[in-house]
């Protein structure tokens, strides 16, 4: 077995490109006047994106270690499209969230479904 084929046997064959969105506390994080309405709009946005399969998974980060409050894995053609999609979140538009995007390769999540 060659060195290349030895390395390749440990690489998953079903890798797919995604964008990891780190949802961080934004500059307006502590503005709480519209919190209940904004949270409902944020959750509705996430559900819409999950059902449309633009977001594959999403959820909160539940410790207070730093300014990271949630993560999302999303599908997009490129970073610009991913950024536009992530920043359409009502929390980002209100300045409560700051979206940080990173391209990643992961095993395909095509079979993963979120249930409501």
UniProtKB/TrEMBL annotation:
<comment type="similarity">
    <text>Belongs to the YciI family.</text>
</comment>
<protein>
    <submittedName>
        <fullName>Uncharacterized protein YciI</fullName>
    </submittedName>
</protein>
<feature type="domain" description="YCII-related">
    <location>
        <begin position="19"/>
        <end position="96"/>
    </location>
</feature>
<dbReference type="InterPro" id="IPR005545">
    <property type="entry name" value="YCII"/>
</dbReference>
<dbReference type="Pfam" id="PF03795">
    <property type="entry name" value="YCII"/>
</dbReference>
<dbReference type="InterPro" id="IPR011008">
    <property type="entry name" value="Dimeric_a/b-barrel"/>
</dbReference>
């Amino acid at each position: 077995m060659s060195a290349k084929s030895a390395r390749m046997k440990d690489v998953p064959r079903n890798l797919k490109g995604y964008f990891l969105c780190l949802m961080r506390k934004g500059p307006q994080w502590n503005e709480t006047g519209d919190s209940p309405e904004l949270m409902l709009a944020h959750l509705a946005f996430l559900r819409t994106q999950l059902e449309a399969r633009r977001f594959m998974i999403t959820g909160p980060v539940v410790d207070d270690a730093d300014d990271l409050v949630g993560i999302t894995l999303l599908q997009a053609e490129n970073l610009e499209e991913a950024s536009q999609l992530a920043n359409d979140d009502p929390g980002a538009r209100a300045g409560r969230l700051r979206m940080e995007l990173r391209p990643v390769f992961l095993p395909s999540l095509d079979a993963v479904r979120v249930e409501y």
